């Protein structure tokens, strides 16, 4: 009797939330579960940020704010982008939204419709493909290559552009692979995009401050030739361990900003005020908590990559950023979903099958190392015992 819109049939999901629910259910039954499936820092939000949120509430910031965000926050975002990249961004082009996902949702809805094509990384954050389908557009996967540190190849991306291509989604550093696209590859991509002026670029840089080996993040904001068609997606969730505050932002081209703001007004009116004041404290306060968190991730990365690479049937590339690693498990002879389920149900270790991130994720498992070194070491031992019993190919 209930007649839902057809688009509801094609809406996907993020398996991480399902795995989390199953892991919690097993833990509630008294099972010992180590969760290496979840994509959020295992650190609390730094205290000075929490305090700013508390103070905002005590000071009476209880009402609506401007739809695009409080002016001090938008100015702080512009100053932060200048600090990080030496790039001038007008605060008037910053749209503060409830989490990184919202910029993605708006950009895809703005350009996706039947007959349109949208390019997205595969394996990639699952919401890209899900929302592209929801919008009616055709998702066109860009393969990422393990042999290239899970970067794309610029020629391969450009070859997939057709007259129907409206939007190209890039994500570096990346979920689920931890891959970082080298500067030369971005240079070649942007040069090629000059031949396709109709293509808007959505650059998801939410892991831009979680990089290793002294690497410097290359923002697509730094390429003047595409600046008038570049949407930057960033936010506080990962860098400041603020996933539950729901705070993110987009930097939109002038021609698109008003449309994005109108989507915001139709959707959520504004972001909750206290979270916005906390966001100002995050951007303008001490940077030590971020440095300490990234240093901890760097240590764990060394440990988990070596340990996974030493497991029978596993081959683990070294991720350049984020807090994920994406080992190739084809040598175990096990299908990835079966392995994910076995590891959770029998070994008590939550991971995510690569296929949850798209067809090219087949043969891989995603591990998040946003967990203590002790938990990671124990998880590896459990996995070793589990895979040693598998009949290896
Ligand atoms: C690549 C990528 N983009 C965006 C997001 C969404 O972030 P938020 O929690 O701020 O919506 C995530 C979260 O996992 C992510 O991995």
Key features?
40% helix, binds pyridoxal-5'-phosphate, 13% strand, globular, three-stranded antiparallel beta sheet, 12 strands, alpha/beta, seven-stranded mixed beta sheet
What does this entry look like structurally?
With about 400 residues, this protein is α/β, with parallel strands linked by helices. Helices cover about 40% and strands about 15% of the residues. It has twelve helices and twelve strands. The protein has helices spanning about 15-30, 45-60, 70-85, 100-110, 125-135, 155-160, 185-195, 255-265, 275-285, 290-310, 335-345, 375-390, and strands at about 35, 95, 115-120, 140-145, 165-170, 200-205, 230-235, 250, 325, 350, 350-355, 365-370. The strands form three sheets. The protein has a seven-stranded mixed β-sheet, sandwiched between helices. The longest helix is centred in the C-terminal third of the chain and has 22 residues, at about 290-310. The protein is globular. The termini are far apart. The relative contact order is 0.17. Bound molecules: pyridoxal-5'-phosphate (PLP). Pyridoxal-5'-phosphate binds next to α4. Pyridoxal-5'-phosphate binds near residues 175 and 235.
Write the layout of secondary structure elements.
Layout: H1 15-28, E1 34-35, H2 47-58, H3 71-85, E2 94-97, H4 100-111, E3 117-122, H5 126-135, E4 138-143, H6 154-159, E5 165-171, H7 183-193, E6 200-204, E7 230-235, E8 248-251, H8 254-267, H9 273-284, H10 288-309, E9 324-325, H11 336-347, E10 349-350, E11 352-353, E12 365-368, H12 373-388
Parallel strand pairs: 1-10, 3-4, 3-5, 5-6, 6-7
Antiparallel strand pairs: 2-8, 7-8, 9-12, 11-12
Helix pairs in contact: 2-9, 3-9, 4-5, 4-8, 10-12, 11-12
The chain binds pyridoxal-5'-phosphate.
């Amino acid at each position: 009797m209930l007649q839902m819109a057809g688009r509801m049939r094609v809406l996907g999901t993020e398996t991480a939330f399902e795995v989390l629910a199953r892991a919690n259910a097993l833990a509630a039954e008294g099972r010992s579960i180590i969760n290496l499936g979840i994509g959020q820092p295992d650190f609390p939000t730094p205290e000075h940020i929490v305090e700013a949120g508390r103070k905002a509430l005590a000071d009476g910031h209880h009402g609506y704010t401007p739809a695009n965000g409080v002016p001090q926050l938008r100015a702080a975002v512009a100053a932060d982008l200048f600090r990080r990249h030496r790039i001038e961004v007008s605060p008037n082009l910053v749209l503060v939204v409830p989490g990184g996902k919202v910029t993605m949702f708006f950009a895809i809805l703005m350009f996706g419709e039947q007959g349109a094509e949208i390019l997205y990384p595969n394996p990639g954050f699952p919401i890209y493909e899900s929302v592209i389908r929801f919008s009616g557009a055709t998702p066109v996967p860009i393969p990422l290559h393990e042999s290239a540190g899970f970067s794309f190849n610029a020629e391969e991306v450009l070859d997939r552009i057709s007259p129907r291509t409206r939007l190209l989604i890039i994500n570096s550093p990346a979920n689920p692979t931890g891959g970082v696209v080298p500067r030369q590859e971005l240079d070649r991509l942007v040069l090629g995009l000059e031949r396709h002026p109709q293509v808007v670029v959505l650059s998801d840089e939410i892991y831009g401050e979680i990089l290793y080996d002294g690497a410097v993040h290359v923002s697509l904001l730094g390429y003047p030739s595409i600046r008038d068609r570049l949407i930057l997606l960033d936010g506080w969730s990962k860098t400041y361990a603020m996933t539950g505050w729901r705070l993110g932002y987009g930097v939109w081209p002038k021609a698109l900003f008003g449309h994005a703001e109108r989507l915001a007004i139709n959707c959520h009116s504004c972001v909750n005020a206290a979270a916005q004041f906390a966001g100002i404290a995050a951007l303008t306060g001490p940077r030590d908590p971020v440095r300490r968190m990234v240093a901890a991730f760097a240590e764990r990365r060394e440990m988990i990559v070596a340990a996974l690479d030493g497991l029978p049937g596993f081959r683990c590339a070294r991720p350049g950023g984020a807090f994920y690693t994406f080992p190739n498990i084809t040598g175990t002879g096990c299908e990835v979903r079966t392995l994910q389920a076995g590891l959770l149900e029998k070994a008590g270790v939550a991971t995510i099958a690569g296929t949850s991130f798209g067809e090219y994720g087949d043969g891989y498992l995603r591990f998040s190392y946003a967990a203590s070194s002790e938990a990671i070491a124990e998880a590896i031992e459990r996995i070793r015992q589990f895979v040693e019993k598998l009949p290896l190919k």
